[in-house]
Design brief:
The chain has 2 domains: about 650 residues, TonB-dependent receptor, beta-barrel domain (Maltoporin, Chain A), CATH 2.40.170.20; about 80 residues, no CATH class. About 10% of the residues lie in helices and about 45% in strands. The protein has 16 helices and 46 strands. It comes from Collimonas rhizosphaerae.
Length: about 900
């Protein structure tokens, strides 16, 4: 039985600080109820996408709203779940629950399929620190995994570019996570559940509250949660890698490098038969026999990470005068994450040429051995661990400008920081001598000489023996950002149709990061570890922006915004002016026609700029060229998804240019009553000078297709791909044509552009004694998506490409029923088709159904049952072998359920 950890001293102190520091928001956001009409409302409010208070939540650009109640009723586990399920999030991202990535302790989204770094994430209208390790080893992003849901009032998603309002990053859209501003009394919430097929048990406790006394008011929240991992071996369809005739993974092998044949292990495999959950067998291949297991990879692989988190939020505000308020807020998060994607594995002389001269046999040989969970004291012994701390603090003052009737101001300072300490178990450099005995020197060709005892290779290890050949490496990463801002808005003058309103903002900010690897890596302490270089950098930014709201006639309103941002980094300045124009036309109160055109820009990611020359290896790699050479389909190819993967050499560039973007949108909103509204919007986004770090998998696909003649070998794409993949000579005596290194670095690509259609609707039905029904639906259809890496390359049609893992469409629909003390919600998310893993066809669309039901026991207490994936559906894809599902697009959890109890103390 798991129990929550005792709050550490720093957590308790943070809670006291959160209680003592005043509350802040950059803007006061709309309290838009489900039944608000598109053209209704009388009180001016601020919504994401504008700094000018307005009487309607609908403007020239569509905004999607997710309320705190939606997060609970629609079965979302957290803020990330809520955002990733939205129709606009058509891009595939791999995060915490897949694990075999650079950032398995973090989760992010990809609006419009343009990547995590093209969506601006705000917390109460302010920027927060990036996760300190780049997504996919390339781009900076905000981690959504540790944002607590306890105090979320609403999340607003601006579905278009907004650099003229918010500056860099706001190309694909803006996500603004808004906390509750007022809470009366105290609310206690406890939630616990698990999965039908085992693993993933989780518990959460939330306590929120607030109140006021005189001129002082405050809000606080505490959220504690724990989630157990799900291991691949707990899901039948992926508990073995041998489905479809795939050969078992090598556990023990001796290969004669001179002949290319394995030395028959004979009865050795039976000595290891009880390892890897009694699955080790003798495998006969065309190259000879070895010991193998179909459970070697599933034995260690987690598909849901283990997590323990403590998230805290506090705010206070003090009314200094009737028109002046001092405010601040503080958010702190402490997260401990564990995952596993492969166990310890050894190959002889891996830091050299991977083979040695066996003095006993007189042949060059390569030995390999995978070490099982039974030998090390359980698979968790080889878990990777992350201990993260994130903080966000804002202080400021706001009020009316003296001697004016309509102008108000706000001055605020915000600082946000994120630290991550990663601990990785690694084999020590004595592992060669452990299995082979002492090195006896080198022959004339520089090959190491040993006289090994084969019995040492086949003898199961004890945990004590394993401890003698393993250690831990700890890296420390951090990032931070700070902003000082001053904003004001009010009425300039009156036109016949109404006042012209203006908002202005100036910002001064800076941000930075550092990645510090364990110094033991470069001291040669660990086995087969390439040199690790740290990276760090910072930049400053300045911005000045203004926005005008102009009522041309009563039925026609124009919005014009302009902003200049300048970044100072790497000894140079890079500035850009962006602008935004929008029109709203209401021929009648219930009908709105809208249009928007905006320019955007994005300064290059700091990771792209400051990354030093780094050598390492990928968690796994698929060598498409060698699969083609062997005439093997991906599903059965020994070079498919092999782990550990190919080595890479990565460099940064301080000469990258900023990206330039353009976005268009136009649409219509019809709201004939407060119970019904529907909208449809066409959108198009284009990015020029796209900064991208070339994807190694795409490089390897292109290289294979170029060598096979499927692409023009003289094209810029082929010339580039062939240069980047360095291989052993075709006549090498060991591993001919094997990848030595993949060279990756960021470039300014020529262009990426995408377009599509958003449709959303809402209908509230009053059915008398049967209760009330609320129907909601959001639909996104991607109409085009093109990419061109070099100006001379032809356009790539990503929408119809069999290499692009993004969805072409997504539907999110729900029905909520309310009757007396009962509330129930059924939500369906339908995902469009995807390319199969072997890229030969498309796999069918997929739908997930969530259900929640709650009952109000008393005015203060309620209970709820939440079931995700009611039909226990898992989308499988066996075309390219294990793990047999589209990783990143879907998860293999199956049905999950929770029981929840809420109680309110106070008035």
């Amino acid at each position: 039985m798991h129990r929550f950890k005792t709050l550490p001293a720093q957590t308790a102190l943070a809670l006291l600080i959160a209680y003592a520091i005043p509350n802040s928001y950059l803007t006061a956001f709309a309290q838009a109820a489900d039944g608000d009409a598109a053209a209704g409302g009388t009180k001016p409010v601020l919504v994401t996408g504008s700094r000018i208070p307005r009487a309607s939540k609908e403007g020239p650009t569509s905004v999607t709203v997710i309320t705190g109640e939606d997060i609970e009723k629609q079965g979302y586990r957290n803020v990330f779940d809520a955002l990733s399920s939205q129709a606009q999030n058509t891009g595939m991202t791999q995060g915490a629950d897949f694990g075999n990535t650079f950032t398995p302790a973090a989760n992010t989204i990809s609006l419009r399929g343009l990547g995590p770094n093209h969506t601006l994430i705000l917390f109460n209208g302010r920027r927060i620190a990036d996760y300190p390790v780049a997504y996919d080893g390339s781009v900076n992003f905000v981690n959504l995994a540790n944002i607590p849901s306890a105090l979320v009032d609403r999340i607003e998603i601006l579905n278009s570019g907004a650099s003229a309002i918010y500056g860099s990053d706001a190309i694909a859209g803006v996500v603004n996570i808004i906390t509750k501003k007022q809470v009366s009394g105290f609310d206690f919430n406890i939630k616990a559940g698990g999965t039908k097929d085992g693993g993933g048990a989780n518990q959460r406790i939330q306590l929120t509250g607030g109140g006021g006394s005189g001129n002082l008011s405050g809000v606080f929240g505490v959220e504690l949660s724990r989630t157990d991992p799900i291991w691949s071996r707990q899901r039948d369809f992926m508990s073995s890698t041998t489905a479809g005739g795939t050969a078992p993974t090598r556990i023990l092998s001796r290969q004669n490098v001179d002949t290319g044949k394995y030395v028959d292990p004979g009865a050795t495999c039976s000595q290891l038969g009880n390892l890897f959950y009694d699955s080790v067998v003798r495998v006969q291949s065309k190259s000879g026999a070895y010991c193998g297991s179909g459970k070697a990879q599933p034995a260690y692989w987690t598909t849901m990470t283990q997590n323990e988190s403590e998230n805290l939020y506090g705010s206070l505000s003090y009314q200094l005068t009737p028109k002046t308020e001092i405010f601040s807020d503080l958010m702190l998060g402490f997260n401990s994450t564990q995952n596993n994607t492969r166990g310890p594995s050894w190959t002889s002389e891996a830091v050299g040429n991977s083979y040695f001269f066996n003095q006993n046999s007189g042949a060059n040989e390569s030995w390999s051995r995978r070490i099982s969970p039974e030998e090390i004291g359980g698979a968790t012994r080889f878990n990777r661990r992350w201990n993260d701390v994130a903080g966000n603090l804002t202080v400021g003052i706001r009020g009316d400008i003296p001697s004016t009737s309509s102008w108000n101001y706000e001055a605020a300072y915000n600082i946000s920081a994120y630290t991550s300490r990663k601990t990785t178990p690694l084999l020590l450099n004595n592992v060669d001598s452990f299995f082979l005995g002492p090195r006896l020197g080198y022959d004339a060709d520089g090959v190491a000489i040993y006289a090994p005892d084969p019995g040492r290779l086949s003898q199961p290890l004890t945990p004590e023996q394993f401890n003698s050949i393993t250690g831990k490496a700890t890296s420390r990463d951090k990032s931070w950002t700070q902003t000082l801002s001053l904003s004001a808005n009010g009425e300039l003058f009156n036109l016949p149709a109404g006042p012209v309103r203006l908002a202005a903002v100036t910002e001064f900010g800076s941000q930075g990061f550092s990645n510090t690897p364990d110094p033991q890596i470069n001291q040669g302490v660990f086995y087969n570890q390439a040199a690790a270089n740290g990276a760090s950098g910072s930049r400053k930014r300045y911005a000045l922006g203004t926005e005008l709201n102009i009522p041309i006639i009563k039925e026609l309103v124009a919005t014009v915004a302009g902003r200049y941002d300048e970044y100072n980094f790497a000894g140079r300045n890079d500035g850009k002016f962006t602008y935004n124009t929008g029109l709203e036309f209401r021929p009648v109160k219930t009908l709105l026609f809208r249009g928007n055109y905006a320019t955007s820009f994005r300064a290059p990611d700091m990771n792209y700029i400051y990354s030093s020359t780094t050598r390492g290896y990928y968690s796994s790699t698929t060598d498409y060229y060698r699969c083609q050479q062997a005439g093997q389909p991906l599903a059965g190819c020994e070079f498919n998804n092999y782990s550990p993967g190919a080595n890479y050499v990565q460099t940064g560039s301080k000469d990258l240019k900023s990206e330039n973007g353009k976005s268009w949108s136009y649409g219509v909103v019809w709201s004939p009553s407060s119970s019904f509204d529907i909208s449809a919007d066409f959108w198009r986004i284009q990015i020029d000078n796209l900064v991208t770090n070339l994807d190694p998998d795409i490089i390897l696909r292109n290289e294979a297709n170029c060598r096979a003649g499927q692409l023009d070998i003289n094209s810029p794409t082929c010339v580039d791909a062939l240069r980047r993949v360095q291989r052993n000579p075709a006549n090498a005596i060991f591993n001919p044509n094997a990848i030595q290194n993949i060279l990756v670095n960021p470039i300014n690509a020529a262009q990426e552009r995408t377009s599509g259609l958003d449709v959303s609707g809402k209908w509230r039905i009053k059915a008398g004694g049967a209760g009330d029904f609320l129907l909601k639906a959001n639909y996104t259809k991607v109409l085009s998506h093109h990419y061109r890496q070099f100006a001379s390359d032809p356009d790539q049609d990503l929408l119809n490409s069999l290499t692009n893992p993004d969805w072409g469409s997504k539907v999110n629909a729900s029905v909520t029923w309310l009757r007396d003390k009962w509330t129930g919600t059924v939500q369906v998310t339908r995902y469009g088709s995807l390319p199969s893993a072997d890229q030969t066809r498309r796999i069918s669309p997929f739908a997930l159904v969530n259900l929640s039901a709650s009952y109000q026991i008393t005015p203060r207490a309620s209970v709820a049952l939440i079931v995700n994936n009611v039909l226990n559906s898992v989308k499988q894809d066996n075309t390219a072998g294990w793990p047999y599902y589209p990783t990143g697009n879907y998860n293999p959890y199956g049905r999950q359920g929770w029981l929840e109890f809420n109680y309110h103390f106070g008035s």
